[in-house]
UniProtKB/TrEMBL annotation:
Signal peptide: none
UniProt keyword Nucleotide-binding present: yes
Primary localisation category: membrane
Designated name of the protein: ATP-binding cassette domain-containing protein
Domain of life: Bacteria
Coiled-coil zones: none
Stored InterPro entries: AAA+_ATPase, ABC_transporter-like_ATP-bd, ABC_transporter-like_CS, ABC_transpr_MalK/UgpC-like, Mo/tungstate-bd_C_term_dom, NA-bd_OB-fold, P-loop_NTPase, Transp-assoc_OB_typ2
Membrane topology of this protein: Peripheral membrane protein
CC annotations in GO: ATP-binding cassette (ABC) transporter complex, substrate-binding subunit-containing
Pfam families in UniProt: ABC_tran, TOBE_2
Keywords: ATP-binding, Nucleotide-binding, Transport
Lineage: Bacteria, Pseudomonadati, Pseudomonadota, Alphaproteobacteria, Hyphomicrobiales
Source species of the chain: Shinella kummerowiae
Amino acid sequence: MPDIVLSNVQKSYGGGSPNAVSDLDLHIHDGEFMCLLGPSGCGKTTTLRMIAGLENLTDGEIHVGERVIDSPARGAFVGPEKRGMGLVFQSYALWPHLTIERNTDFGLRLRKVPKAEREARVEKVMKALDIEKYRHRYPSQLSGGQQQRVALARMLAVNPGVLLLDEPLSNLDARLRLEMRAELKRIHAEFRTTIVFVTHDQWEAMTLATSIAVMSEGRLQQLGTPNDIYDRPANRFVAEFVGSPPINILEAATTHALDRAASHWLAGRLGESAGVGSVGFRPEALQIARSEAAVPGGSFRHAAEVTGILPTGGSWIIELKVDGRALFATTTESPALRGGERVWVHVRPTAVHVFDAAGLRLAEADDVLARAA
């Protein structure tokens, strides 16, 4: 399948309401597993539906290779049935009166694929998804995870160039979601189908995607690999949305002791006129020492009180407070700490994220802090 390119895409439903999608430029490469990630109402499902042809653009263009599939300015629109894409909804939409085999070959029958080829394709995808043993059962006789596999098999059987998935795992319990994530990874590796996956679950995006497009209020906030999104968030929204527990944020313009200490520490490295609005550091980057003397030189540091230790199974969340302000640290080793203990928290310079007053990342600060490490 050629690359899919969205150029200055706009979607408005009129009535004076804000655009559902604004100024969206997105390049989805052939064979890519892209996740559209963001909170409810951010425009991610609308974007998927525009790619599928279920929504018309208000402005802009969508290209598949050299082919224009939607362009209001050119009067061009290719119907969803002619785009060579498969769509899997949050609800599995299986036919309850058809067996699993008949659900799987439903699209092939509509396309009048010859029987021998149809049976060969169905057999291949059913084996790949481990559902061939259920071929004579009906959807009501399967678990949610098994029904999800059937919905995926039905789409893969018609061999679409692009597989569009709209929060397909949200109805599953935690264990089935984990199994299906692994299944989707394997499907992508085996079939090399381009996948566009909508989710509000950051861990689904981080574990599945080769690239993530983070959206908010109809606008693209950042496009990058999972590591890019997590390690170098483009703005404060991305930094706060991705990560659990969430990133610790200190404000530059307050008089709180912790904020003033961070501002003073940064001013010594970036200068007073650096334009810092806020500072962030991930919980796993926040280290704890029992004395100030044990803190590595050059690190940001402050005295704190341990107020809670929360085991999560395999890791621990440590809650600390500085004059009523909560901070969170995480560790994979059982912490030898107790509630009420006074400690020193510290963060190395390279683990500090610096944002300006508008919430944009101060990229120049990264280089300065890297040299100071």
